[in-house]
Structures are given as C-alpha cells and as structure tokens.
Amino acid sequence: MSGYVLGLGAFQLLHPIINISLSQGKGNVSSFSLLTNSNYVCSNSISKQLVLSLWSSTTITTTSSSCTPKLKTQATKSQAGSSSSWPQQQDQEEEEEEEEDFQVVTAIRSQFNDISILDTPNSRMLLLDATHNVHSILYKDQKWTGSYWDEFASLPAIVPKGPIAILGLGGGTTAHLMLDLWPALQLEGWEIDEILIEKLREYLALSDLEKRTVAGGILNVHIGDALSQSVNASGGFAGIVVDLFSGGKVLPQLQKVQTWLELNDRLMPNGRLMVNCGGIDEAADVIDGVVHPKNSSIDGTWVQNYTIKALSKAFPGKVGILS
C-alpha cells in the first residue's frame, strides 16, 4: 500500500446542502442547510435568509451565517434600547433589510448538470445539479475560501514531488489555490462535463490555469470519466484529490472498496489521497431541487458515511479524518 488517506467531511448531512461555508447558520432550516465543519467557527453569527431564483421553476431558500457569501438577504435585529434612545419602542423588534446585488452571468443545462454561475460584488460562485450546491467559489479580494478547498490546497506540502490529479475539477477552486501557493505544480484535472469546462474558461478564469506559470506550473484539463482506467501518470501521481459528486451525493463507486484500491495503485510511493466525503444523506431523494432525507441523526450524530466505511476497509489504520 503506497499511500495515506485524508477523508474530508466525515459525516452525512441530513438536509440539502449549499457548500458555501464551514459554519452552520442558526434559525429554522427551510429547503437547505450549510455544509459544516467543527474546525471553523464564525463569530457574531447572524441568522439570515438567502433566496436565489435561478430557474423559472426553482426557488432556493436557505439559512446562512454572516460569514457566508450573501446574494439577497433579510435580517431581523432585536433592539431593546433604553427609553431615552428608543421612546415608545421598548420590547419591540426593529426589522432591517439588507440587500447585496448579484447577477446570474450564465445558466445552462448540460447532459450532466444544471449549471449556474453567479457574480456578486465579492465573489463568483458555481452552482450545479438539481440541488444547486455551490461547487466552487472565487473571491475577488482574497484567495482563501474558508471551506474545504483550503484543505485540499495543503496536499502538495505532504506528498513527493510529482503530478497531482484532481478528480472532479468542479469550478477549479482547488486548482486556483494550489497553483497560487505552489506555482511549479503540474496539475491534471478531470471533469466529465465539457459544457461546464467551456463556461469555467469563460467566467471563472480556468483558462488562466491552463497557461504555464513563470515557475512552470500548469493545469492540464481532461474531459472524461475521472474513474476510468485512462486516468494515470507515468510513475504514478504524487497525490490524488477526489471531489466527485452527482446530485449532491458522493458517487456510488466511491462506496466500493475496489475503487479505492484501484486509485491507490495509481499513486507513486508515499503518495496520498485526499477525499471530500461530505454530502447529503446517501439515502435521500432530490425532488424538484429539494432534498428529502430518508435517514435521521441520533443525538446529533450524522448517519453512516459509506464512503468512509469503504476507505477504512481499503486502508485499515491509514485513514485520517478532518470533520
């Protein structure tokens, strides 16, 4: 066995998710909740409602915290004020409405995805599939996302020198971060959706990553099945990032031990896998953009993550979990 495994997101969410932030919003969850991570806590969290109308037949509603990207928000602020400051308004709530402009720069349906790219004053975001999960975010004034992509960017520091594969390129956030931090890297990215790649080149600066940096680094984009036998490198990959989802769920192939053994064979000695295992409950159904979970948590414990179960069987004692 040549590699070690880092499993990201060692839990299953019981509600539909938007992967915007690693801090859970407060308040009543409506259609969507947030991907959470106990390692990241946002202070002064304010519960807000986020409403996106991306498709004529779909309205997405979620709760978000103050540290997440906002598109259109409504906030309620409780003010107890003294009688001198707020005469005749004691014990009353003052409602304040905050709005941040956003624009849907492109929205198209491909063979594999409902693709939407949103522009806000602070960021650009890629939303995919029937759940409209955020699969990528690029901030205009900073590199770090405060989400799991930052964890992926640490992989080059702990693997041998050599090419790194990104299985499930998404919007290219991981590739952007890696080449910014490690400009000499050779990245090999796989994405099955050709139309998505075209939109990323046009709106999320993917084409910039396909040009060699001064230090010689580059992202080579491959369109095709990320789990096919053709995904390989002479001498093996130094690292493999696995971020494969469909309909908000981890691909079912990743719940099989054999899949991980095959990926492990594509690593060079001392290479490593880094995996995003988070996602909606694998038993859930997605109907009209709304996730309907079939399982529930017990005392706040997430339902069994079958991807991590497969990883643990494939690599006993060698699976590290960031949750």
UniProtKB/TrEMBL annotation:
Residues 71-87 have a biased composition (Polar residues). GO terms for molecular function: methyltransferase activity. Keywords: Methyltransferase, Transferase. Residues 62-101 are annotated as: Disordered. InterPro entries: Lys/N-term_MeTrsfase_sf, SAM-dependent_MTases_sf. One of its GO terms (biological process) is methylation. Residues 91-101 have a biased composition (Acidic residues). Belongs to the methyltransferase superfamily. This is S-adenosyl-L-methionine-dependent methyltransferase. It comes from Castanea mollissima (Chinese chestnut).
